[in-house]
């Protein structure tokens, strides 16, 4: 098996279960159109093209757990086998649509072009007593830029002023420890003052540490820890849907605290969506601007601790941080 094939042999989060009910849904998966629908055997993912006259199956409908093409009504089951050609009398000829592995876990649909034996990774608080909200996003960008954006603490003063940071420009000396290993890298921030942004004031107490982590193949996680334990966390699964679109599916996570936890979780989602929109704007601006000649390569500044390691992990290489922790001091 080649490196590339091996790297494809994993699950990718592609949609929220709640978005696939009665109607089929088209997604782009590594640049290829797929249709997701609920078959008799559960969630199914097929190449979204009828072999007959190449119409998008996702514009058809689901009938009895099979997908019906809107043009001549050919039907396909969850494995992609053609089961009906309306009007045809006699033995069924064999036609197939390519099928992909598809499973659902914790309200999220995962697809693979291989046949992974392992379960998909869900989020950083798996198995803990938590409340979650699930979110989805679409951004004009590249996975590396979108992942770095989620983990980058130094843009929050500008892009999210007032929301994640206070309105004053006062900064505090913070210690950052970067550690890593095969398929992951993380930055742990300690010594931060209580944050003055709206989200922190509403949802957090005093913060003791912040962790930003990247995991293979495109997972970005943030954990905010307080004196009493975890205050907030997010895990975002990012993937390159096509050349210029990053699709994200994620969990917003808080500790279970009875009704308080539920209220916080309720408030977190709309606030988080505002932050997401602010990020979408800068990422789109960068993506539009990258097409001009010289220089299209971003400069890796002294505070961009994770960029090179994220790139290495995405290429299937060992990140430099695996050789030992790196410690930085910055003003945040
Ligand atoms: S194009 Fe799909 S049935 Fe003819
Ligand atoms: Fe951001």
Which terms summarize this structure?
single chain, 332 residues, alpha+beta, Rieske Iron-sulfur Protein, Naphthalene 1,2-dioxygenase Alpha Subunit, Chain A, domain 1, 2 domains, 8-stranded antiparallel beta sheet, 6 helices, 20% helix, binds FE2/S2 (inorganic) cluster, binds fe (ii) ion
Task: Report on this structure.
Keywords: 2Fe-2S, Iron, Iron-sulfur, Metal-binding, Oxidoreductase. The chain is α+β, with helices and mostly antiparallel strands and 332 residues long. It has helices spanning 3-8, 143-151, 156-159, 198-203, 259-290, 307-314; strands spanning 12-16, 25-29, 32-39, 42-47, 61-63, 66-68, 75-76, 82-84, 99-105, 108-112, 130-140, 173-181, 184-190, 207-215, 219-226, 229-242, 245-255, 326-331. Strand 7 (75-76) and strand 8 (82-84) form a beta hairpin. It starts with a helix and ends with a strand. Residues 1-7 have low confidence and may be disordered. The site of fe (ii) ion has 6 residues, from helix 5. FE2/S2 (inorganic) cluster is lined by residues 50, 52-53, 55, 69, 71-72, 74.
What do the pLDDT scores average to? 91
Bound molecules: FE2/S2 (inorganic) cluster, fe (ii) ion
* CATH fourth-tier homologous superfamily of the largest domain: Naphthalene 1,2-dioxygenase Alpha Subunit, Chain A, domain 1
Strand order of the largest sheet: 11-17-16-15-14-13-12-18
Indicate how many domains the architecture comprises.
2
The arrangement of helices and strands along the chain is: HEEEEEEEEEEEHHEEHEEEEHHE
The stretches of 5 or more residues where confidence is low (pLDDT under 50) are: 1-7
By secondary-structure content and strand pairing, the structural class works out as: alpha+beta
């Amino acid at each position: 098996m080649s490196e590339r094939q091996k790297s494809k042999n994993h699950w990718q989060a592609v949609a929220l279960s709640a978005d696939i009910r009665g109607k089929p849904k088209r997604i782009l998966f590594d640049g290829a159109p797929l249709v997701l629908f609920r078959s008799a055997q559960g969630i199914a993912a097929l190449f979204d093209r009828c072999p007959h006259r190449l119409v998008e199956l996702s514009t058809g409908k689901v009938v009895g757990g099979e997908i019906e093409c809107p043009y001549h009504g050919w039907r396909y089951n969850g494995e992609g086998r053609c089961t009906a050609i309306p009007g045809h009398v006699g033995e069924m000829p064999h036609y197939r649509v390519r099928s992909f592995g598809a499973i659902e876990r914790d309200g999220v649909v995962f697809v693979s072009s291989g046949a992974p034996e392992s379960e998909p990774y869900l989020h950083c608080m798996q198995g803990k007593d938590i409340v979650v909200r699930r979110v989805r996003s679409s951004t004009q960008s590249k996975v590396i830029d979108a992942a770095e954006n989620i983990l980058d603490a130094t843009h929050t003063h500008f892009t999210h002023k007032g929301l994640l940071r206070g309105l004053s420009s006062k900064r505090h000396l913070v210690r950052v420890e970067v550690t890593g290993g095969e398929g992951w890298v993380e930055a742990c921030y300690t010594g931060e003052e209580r944050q003055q942004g709206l989200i922190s004031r509403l949802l957090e107490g005093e913060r003791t540490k912040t962790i930003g982590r990247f995991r293979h193949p495109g997972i970005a996680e943030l954990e905010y820890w307080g004196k009493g334990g975890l205050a907030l966390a997010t895990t975002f699964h990012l993937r390159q849907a096509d050349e210029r679109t990053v699709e994200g599916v994620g969990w917003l996570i808080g500790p279970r605290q009875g009704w308080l936890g539920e209220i916080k979780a309720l408030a977190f989602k709309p606030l988080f969506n505002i932050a997401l929109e602010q990020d979408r704007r800068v990422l789109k601006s960068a993506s539009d601007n990258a097409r001009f000649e010289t220089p299209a390569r971003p400069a890796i500044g002294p505070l961009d601790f994770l960029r090179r390691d994220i790139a290495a992990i995405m290429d299937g290489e060992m990140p430099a941080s695996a050789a030992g922790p790196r410690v930085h001091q910055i003003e945040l």
